[in-house]
Automatic annotation (TrEMBL):
InterPro entries: Poly_Biosynth_Transport. The keyword Cell cycle does not apply. Keywords: Cell membrane, Membrane, Transmembrane, Transmembrane helix. The chain crosses the membrane at residues 30-48, 60-82, 102-119, 131-152, 266-285, 306-324, 344-364, 371-396, 402-425, 437-456, 468-488. It is found in: Cell membrane. This is Flippase. The keyword S-adenosyl-L-methionine does not apply. PANTHER family: O-ANTIGEN TRANSPORTER-RELATED, PST FAMILY PREDICTED COLANIC ACID TRANSPORTER. One of its GO terms (cellular component) is plasma membrane. It holds the Pfam family Polysacc_synt_3.
Length: 517
């Protein structure tokens, strides 16, 4: 005789299924807006290198990186704290929101004055100084908007935010396109970003008041507690930001702004693999926060399956970037950027590891091991400049054009390897189970076959497009034939997304059980 199922267990299963469907719907909504915004960004990524040329594009990237590094302190670690705590207690947001906004405003004013003094003594051209200052204003808005978005993601209210993302990206992309059409000078090219972020802040504030009943109040006692809890998140964010920005600053000083332009071109193309990265903070982190509140086992299961999904998405994109680097540089950047192909090949594998560390860092944070994330990120921030200081002068002199850019890409690659190993080592069996490891092994074999096939086809003189087409076909057949990727599970997710029934209907849909290895 079957044992009866208690009403509380049924309610828990129904709520969990409803939560999963809500997360999937949020993912699809945000993913739709990301597709539109990335289409706009793709056009701008192709426009700016052609409009500016390697050297001016180098100044453009260097200015943005310099401003972002300068304003790292305004992050406060608040975004991660929000995604960890607000999903399980939404009313808590009003306890610290007003005070932290005023704190950020005061920090911004001080940093703007300091930035002006630093720029005055660096000897950079006046138009570059103006560009950096505009990027600094944009960066201050970006940080606030990230916190506003985190609040909405934590509540699961993303429809309005998805529309906002599209609107603001149109403002940014359209502004840059108009400036390029009218031949506007370099110093004004960050203004569209300032305008777009200002529009986003207005929309996000209205959405937060509507969905979270967010109130602007000053509570010093509560904010002090929040800031203490945010310390590891702040140090991690600062380390990651410096790790991703100081490299361009060093490259510009140790090599040339033209090398920064080639590196920036390669990074812009490789960065397209970050298409789904916002989903991690927007959807996965709040979902894992609620899973952690229920049980460590559920958190680990969700983490393992998320890592599988990450690899299924990022590995083929990485392969396309590596094998077609010359073609992508020619299409995206245009004449003068041919040396960017080698740094692009070096950068491409980094983004697979970056996605893995994203999921790993969420597990560590939800397991109250956030200081380990801070330690690994800080180590990366320390070793990356050291690698750059050693490798840039060496490869810049040995390789010639793109030597400095390749050195910076290699420095980031080595740093990412170290951080990934540290994260996965700390997670242990919570990262990969037998099923995951089998998938990784099968995927690696398929990748090896594709690389060998590409070399053979290239030696036979086959044109790039047919060569990449045959290699891509081989990859798809390989991962499906070996079972490394399972389409049935993807279809199951789509079916879940389509089930938008009432709470009662949601109880009838069981959360997928942990599959056997």
């Amino acid at each position: 005789m079957n044992s009866p199922i208690s009403p509380s267990a049924e309610a828990d299963d129904g709520a969990r299924a409803n939560e999963v469907r809500g997360a999937v719907r949020s993912t699809l909504q945000l993913g739709g807006s990301l597709m539109v915004t990335y289409a706009i960004a793709l056009g701008i990524r192709a426009l700016m290198p052609r409009y500016l040329g390697p050297e001016a594009f180098g100044y453009f990237n260097w200015s943005e990186a310099f401003a972002a590094t300068f304003f790292v302190a305004t992050n406060l670690g608040l975004e991660t704290y929000i995604r960890k705590e607000v999903p399980v207690r939404p009313d808590h947001a009003s306890d610290f929101f007003g005070t932290t906004m005023l704190l950020r405003l005061a920090m911004t004013l001080i940093l703007m004055v300091a930035l002006a003094l630093v720029l005055h003594h660096t000897g950079e051209p006046p138009e570059v100084q103006h560009l950096v200052q505009w990027f600094a204003v944009a960066q201050s808005l970006i940080v606030v908007n990230a916190s506003m978005a985190a609040l909405l993601h934590s509540k699961g209210k993303v429809a309005g935010l998805s529309v906002s993302n599209v609107i603001t990206k149109i403002v940014w992309g359209g502004g840059l396109a108009l400036m390029a059409a009218f031949g506007v000078g370099l110093q004004w090219l960050a203004v569209p970003m300032v305008l777009s972020e200002a529009v986003k802040l207005i929309i996000s504030w209205k959405l937060a008041k509507e969905h979270l009943n967010l109130k602007f109040r000053i509570d010093l006692t509560a904010t002090k507690k929040v800031m203490k809890a945010c310390l590891p998140f702040f140090l991690t964010a600062a380390a990651l930001a410096c790790n991703g920005r100081t490299d361009m600053s060093l490259l510009g000083k140790l090599a040339s702004k033209e090398e920064v332009g080639w590196y920036g071109g390669a990074f812009s193309i490789a960065g397209l693999t970050f298409l789904i990265s916002p989903i991690f903070g927007w959807v996965l982190m709040p979902m894992m926060s609620r899973a952690a509140a229920r049980s460590p086992q559920e958190l680990s299961h969700l983490t393992r399956r998320s890592l599988e999904g990450v690899l299924a998405f990022t590995v083929p994109v990485m392969m396309a970037m590596v094998l077609g680097a010359d073609l992508w540089v020619r299409l995206m950047c245009g004449p003068g950027f041919e040396p960017a192909a080698l740094p692009l090949r070096v950068l491409s594998p980094i983004f697979v590891m970056a996605y893995v560390t994203m999921v790993s860092s969420i597990w560590l944070t939800m397991s109250n091991k956030e200081w380990w994330v801070t330690l690994a990120a800080t180590m990366g921030a320390v070793v990356n400049p050291i690698f750059n200081l050693v490798l840039i002068p060496w490869l810049y002199g040995r390789i010639g054009p793109s030597g400095g850019a390749t050195a910076t890409a290699l420095s980031m690659f080595l740093t990412e390897v170290i951080v990934t190993v540290l994260f996965l080592g700390r997670m242990g069996t919570n990262s990969f189970d037998r099923r995951s490891l089998v998938m990784v092994a099968k995927t690696a074999v398929v990748c090896g076959v594709c690389v060998a096939l590409d070399r053979v086809l290239m030696g036979a003189g086959l044109a790039p497009w047919p060569r990449l087409g045959l290699t891509a076909t081989t990859y798809v057949v390989g991962v499906l034939g070996t079972g490394a990727v399972r389409p049935a599970e993807l279809l199951q997710v789509v079916r879940m997304a389509r089930q938008r029934g009432s709470h009662g209907a949601s109880a009838e849909v069981a959360v997928p059980a942990a599959p056997t290895a």
